[in-house]
Amino acid sequence: MHLPPMMVLMTSLLGHAVQTVRGLPPDVQDDLARTLLRLAERYQPVVRLTSEERADLAEADAEIERGELTMDEDVEALWTKPIP
After folding, report:
1. Distance CA 46, CA 8 (A)
2. Measured at the alpha carbon of residue 43, what is the angle toward residues 39 and 49, in degrees to the nearest 5?
3. What's the rounded Cα separation, in Å, for the pair 73 and 76?
4. Which pLDDT tens digit goes with each residue over 42-63?
């Protein structure tokens, strides 16, 4: 039996759980996926920010407080702009 690449890295039990969940209604699948992701977050390493990164985030928070938000059109233009 040929398994999809993502299934090769799973334990048999997790693979069985995923196969079982595939047969459930989409809203239930989404609920279970959110629960699994929340549980998996507990095992992710803590990211330590540098002082420069903390300063950048503080400035971003201040911009948000002042209402200095980027418009959707500006973001779309950035993503569609050709890379030199």
Report:
1. 27
2. 115
3. 5
4. 998 888 999 999 999 999 999 9
Q: Which residue in this structure is represented by tokens 């609920």?
A: 31
In whole angstroms, give the CA distance from residue 68 to residue 82: 26
Q: Which pair of structure tokens corresponds to residue 25?
A: 């209604």
Pair of tokens at residue 59: 């400035």
Cα(41)–Cα(28) distance, rounded to whole angstroms? 20
Q: DSSP for 33-69?
A: HHHHHHHHHTTSPPPPPPHHHHHHHHHHHHHHHTT--
Identity at 25, one-letter amino acid code: P
Domain locations along the chain: 1-84
pTM: 0.47
